[in-house]
Amino acid sequence: MIMQGIEMPRFRTVRGMRDFLPKHAGMMRYVEGLSRELAGLYGYEEVITPIVESYKLLAAKSGEEIKQRMYAFEDLGGRKVALRPEFTASIARLVAGKMRNEPKPLRLFCLGRLYRYDEPQYGRFREFWQANYELIGSDKPEADAEILTLTNNLVERLGLRNYHFRIGHVGILRGILSQENVAEESQNRIMQLLDKKQWDAALIAAKDCNVSERCIGILKRLFKAKGKEPSRVLKRVKEEVREYRSAVAAVENLWDILGLVRDGGVKFEMVIEAGFARGLEYYTGLVFEPYVPELDIALGGGGRYDRLIELFGGEPTAAVGVAQGIDRLILAMKKQGISPRIMEGKRVVIIPISDELKAKAIELSSMLREAKIPAEVEVMGRSVSRALEDADRKGATHTVLVGPEELREDKVVLRDMKKREQRVVEIKNLCEEIE
Fold first, then answer.
1. What is the DSSP string of 174-242?
2. Is the confidence at residue 209, as pLDDT, over 90?
3. Superfamily per CATH, domain 348-434
4. How much is the pTM?
5. Of 54, 95, 223, 244, whose CB has the highest number of CB atoms within 10 Å?
6. CA angle 177, 218, 212 (to 5 degrees)
7. SS3 for 121?
8. CA-to-CA distance for 79 and 187, rounded, in angstroms?
9. Mean pLDDT across 167-191
10. How far apart are CA 271 and CA 290, in angstroms?
């Protein structure tokens, strides 16, 4: 672009960031709307937290990889802050502080933008959107079952097909490693490797912690223990970990959760994996991720975190939650050819036939808006035929032609753009005629 002899730069979005044109923005709002509707149906109340938080808050229990990928910087006050990479730390801070005396359970919902300096690729962006649901205050399996059920409801309502849930319980592996006297920091490193499906590296890391040979053998078998039949997989896992008390308790906890889901009539395909872990370090129990066959990335993920709120200065408080990836849910819908018919209301374009009638067109547009009917005035000075073409291209449901002859009788021409029909109507009845 050249302006008065000066060449102006062509600006593009920053790498990993995106512009959303109206159609894509409409899809985003559609999924967001369903997410909010679901929150209301389950009794989750919306909270809004800052995009910028203390780096220490966000780094605590986030995992080494996320720490390295945070947009962190020092503000003008010399404080180290960061753009939030996920919601749970902010929610835990809120519950530990301003909401510490609120009656439990708390059901909290939040939705918004998150930031991680990942390598941009299909389904992974540096700025992304999530809908977050947190159930705080209950350590009962029915709370975990609710989060699983809610996630299934959202995926189902979006019309996604052939999806499955990858399900595990970090208490199984942590129970084994704790009894083998593996420090928490080393456990976290092993969990990070498992999150990346680096099974062999995880075993090497366990050996470096001087665990027993029996433990290594059990871990090898657990990493291969997976299947679609929960009872069969969990029976096998329980037998493997029988000498590790807390690991046995974790298996039984997962059994209770899945039993409640099943007996509650909620049906979805699941794959149980004993060696499944998620990257965030704060998980203490159930972990899960939903998938569709067309994408090799999770559509979201969640699990139980019973010690995070206490870490931030709150009372010991059990919690479980899930983050739904709005961007990825939309990608999955596109992959499966799902284009929901987003219900659109009326859209009216008012076209003055001549310059002298522009003020009347503005007056009529105000009248329609007061009646909650979206209306815009033709402002480009186009001919009537060109203005009608443009209104049609924009998806207008009706046009109103303001002409001198009709106006002398307090009338206008109302055109139904879908039916290609038009008629003369009285201005006093215009809103009713459009509806």
1. HHHHHHTT--HHHHHHHHHHHHTT-HHHHHHHHHHTT--HHHHHHHHHHHT-EES-HHHHHHHHHHHTT
2. yes
3. Anticodon-binding domain (3.40.50.800)
4. 0.88
5. 95
6. 55
7. strand
8. 31
9. 94
10. 10
- The tens digit of pLDDT for each residue in 139-167 reads 999 999 999 999 999 999 999 999 999 99
Q: Decide: helix, strand or coil at residue 47.
A: coil
User: Would you state the pLDDT for residue 22?
Assistant: 86
Please tell me whether residue 150 adopts helix, strand or coil conformation: helix
The torsion of the CA quartet 205, 208, 212, 217, rounded to 10 degrees, works out to 30
Contact 304, 319 (CB under 8 A): yes
Query: Which of 343, 340, 358 shows the shortest CA–CA distance to 397?
Result: 343
C-alpha atoms less than 13 angstroms from C-alpha of 224 in its C-beta half-sphere = 7
Q: Could you give the CA distance from residue 69 to residue 134 in angstroms, rounded to a whole number?
A: 24
Q: What is the pLDDT of residues 61-109, one digit of tens each?
A: 887 888 899 999 999 999 999 999 999 999 999 999 999 999 999 999 9
Percent of the chain residues topping a pLDDT of 70: 97
| Residue 122: other Cβ atoms inside 10 A | 9
CATH 3.30.930.10 residue ranges of the chain are: 22-335
In words, the CATH class of domain 22-335 is: alpha beta
User: Is the Cα dihedral 102, 56, 185, 71 positive or negative?
Assistant: positive
Any residues with CB less than 8 A from the CB of 294 and at least 6 apart, and which?
332, 335, 336
Tell me the per-residue pLDDT of 116-128, one tens digit each, with 9 for 90 and over. 998 888 878 999 9
Determine the Cα–Cα distance for residues 29 and 107; give it in Å rounded to an integer.
22
Residues 6 or more apart whose Cβ sits within 8 Å of residue 376: 347, 348, 349, 350, 365
Q: CA 376 to CA 365: how far, in whole Å?
A: 6
Please give the average per-residue pLDDT across 323-338, as a whole number: 95
CB 225 within 8 A of CB 239: no
Q: Where, residue-wise, is CATH 3.40.50.800 in the chain? A: 348-434
The tokens describing 69, both together, are 């990928």
Provide the pLDDT confidence category of residue 344 given band limits of 50, 70 and 90.
Answer: low
What percent of the residues of the chain are helix, what percent strand, and what percent coil, each to the nearest 5? 40, 20, 35
Mean pLDDT of the chain: 93
AA letter at 27: M
3-class state of residue 169 by DSSP:
strand
